[in-house]
Amino acid sequence: MKIKIQSAEIVLSAPSSYSARWDVYSAAASNPNRSFAAALGLCWRGPTGPKARLAQHKFDALSYGGAVMDELVERGVPVADILNAGVQAWNLCGEGLITATEVEDAENFSDGGDISTAGSSPSAESMDKARSGSAA
């Protein structure tokens, strides 16, 4: 995806790391602006992207987002431009993280059946036999 920040055209693409995408995407629950900035840094391709790296921040998406935001503001990029581009990058990070079925299940709040410690698994059967004194 190509977008413009100020007058420069940049390329955004989702990184291949599911974990990195999830960390950045889910960070929006705590601090959306830092999450959007982190997503922008994570998805920005090319030599003009932020120098900060997620690994440098011990994979703390909010710390990373703050570093990206600070770096871009120091370069003279308006905060509104960072956040607008960041929202698009954040959406890229979120693609494919949650399936339509998972969303539907969460919305319907289906119970998924009874939870049981004694099931048909070999370990559960062994425990049942041990409790009753039968040989395994």
The gist of it:
This protein has 136 residues and is mostly helical.
Number of E-type strands: 3
Sheet/helix structural class:
mainly alpha
For the biggest sheet, the summary is: 3 strands, antiparallel
Strand order of the largest sheet: 1-2-3
Low-confidence sequence ranges: 116-136
Task: Please trace the helix and strand order, writing H or E for each element.
Answer: EEHHEHHHH
Radius of gyration: 22 Å
Terminal CA distance reads: 60 Å
Indicate the mean pLDDT.
82
Quickly count the helices: 6
> How much strand content do the residues show?
5-15%
The proportion of residues forming helix, as a percent range, comes to 40-55%
Number of domains: 1
SSE arrangement:
Elements: E1 2-5, E2 8-12, H1 18-26, H2 32-43, E3 44-45, H3 61-74, H4 79-94, H5 100-108, H6 122-132
Antiparallel strand pairs: 1-2, 2-3
Helix pairs in contact: 1-2, 1-4, 2-3, 2-4
Can you describe this structure?
- The protein is mostly helical and 136 residues long.
- The chain has one domain.
- Helices cover 52% and strands 8% of the residues.
- It is built from 6 helices and 3 strands.
- The chain has helices at residues 18-26, 32-43, 61-74, 79-94, 100-108, 122-132; strands at 2-5, 8-12, 44-45.
- It has a 3-stranded antiparallel sheet with strand order 1-2-3.
- The model is unreliable at 116-136 (pLDDT under 50).
List keywords for this structure.
136 residues; mainly alpha; three-stranded antiparallel β-sheet; 52% helix; disordered C terminus
